Amino acid sequence: MRTLVFLPAWNEVESIATVLAEVSQTLPSADLLVVDDGSHDATARVAREAGALVASFPFHVGIGAAVQTGYLYANRHGYDICAHLDADGQHPARELARLITAVESGEADLALGSRFLSSVETEAGESLYRPSRSRSVGMSLFRFLLSKRTGLSLTDTTSGLRAANRLVISEFAEHYANDYPELESLQRLARRGLRIVEYPIVCRPRTAGSSKLTPLRSAHFVFTSTLALLVGLFPERRGR
Amino acid sequence: MTGFVIAALSAQTRTLVALVGLAFLLVLIELVRRRRLQERYTIAWIIATVSLWLCVLVPRTIETLADLLGISDTTAALFAVGFFLVFTLLLHLTVVISRVNQQVVRLSQELAILRAESDVETAHEPHPETSATPVNDSLQRSR
């Protein structure tokens, strides 16, 4: 099966080379694509030197459009599996490999890495994910909204570690929200009858850079995602 | 105090609103003539101007409207109409902006994909050791 692994990256010059090396070592047969979302640093150059294909945006467009670009590329080039992970180094490549195996075996149409399901013993340098209180309140709200009408009960709805088969690739290539698409995309897939399965993963603390989620962005995230989920509860209406 | 008696618009207000509306239409036409404004976006403005004209040139309209809204002062009713029109126009504009934004995003996605695809092409060039430099890239691609 042809597999594409892509990394949405925005100013991740410090970690991108390490992550790419780790992925190509763990998944030697997969093609690597970095979606450079208008980075001001040398992310694109470093990624190209590391042997990845680079889809570079002329300006910053946001995580949704960046992730969709990966799916668009996979769709146009006929990949059977498309997987992505964050470029900041928090997702170990072997966890991605497990998700890819799950999709290959037909267990799931979309495999998600969950930071909460994990009962795995923490290894040195790896820590179990512990969200702040305000964050966990938000996450329960999302879990509740997402379970309505879809019957999905997911623990980690905003995970950036995913592997998808062709059905999901063509769906995401067509529809993927721009701002904060994580939740809405799951809702849409579930309502289309596609199988979403979570797998426990252990994340590392980020190796470089800082979180892009400021308080203001978090508020925006909660607002847009809630609105999108509420709108998604209604029957779909196709526009022009 | 006035109860159900509706105070009519003064002649001064009516003339002023009609004239401002006219000036506005002229500016609109001039903008279209200079191609600074597309015809399709003038429709909303023309509807707004004509509605205001209707209110001041046929006083019965605004008086009936004021009565329906329970406003005794027609001037206030005129303001209400103006506000409603402005809000509708703003909503229309944000719809337009959303569409334009979607188009920009899709274009930039296409550009990003093309850039990645041109990476693939250069990777398959016959001279891999020279294709690493951008200068040679552009020469080789013009084969």
What is shown here, in short?
Chain A has 240 residues and is an alpha/beta fold. Chain A contains eight helices and seven strands.
List keywords for this structure.
heterodimer; A: 240 residues; alpha/beta; seven-stranded mixed β-sheet; 8 helices; B: 143 residues; mainly alpha; 5 helices; elongated; disordered C terminus
Strand-helix topology:
The complex is a heterodimer of chains A (240) and B (143).
Chain A: E1 3-9, H1 13-26, E2 31-36, H2 43-49, E3 53-56, H3 63-76, E4 81-84, H4 93-104, E5 110-114, H5 133-147, E6 162-164, H6 166-174, H7 182-191, E7 196-200, H8 215-232
Helix pairs in contact in A: 1-2, 3-6, 5-8, 7-8
Chain B: H1 11-33, H2 42-57, H3 59-69, H4 74-123, H5 134-141
What would you note in describing this structure?
The complex is a heterodimer of chains A (240) and B (143). Chain A is α/β, with parallel strands linked by helices. Chain A has helices spanning 13-26, 43-49, 63-76, 93-104, 133-147, 166-174, 182-191, 215-232; strands at 3-9, 31-36, 53-56, 81-84, 110-114, 162-164, 196-200. A seven-stranded mixed sheet of chain A has the order 3-2-1-4-6-5-7, with helices on both faces. In chain A, helix 1 (13-26) links the parallel strand 1 and strand 2 (31-36). By secondary structure, chain B is mostly helical. Chain B is built from five helices and no strands. Residues 127-143 of chain B have low confidence and may be disordered.
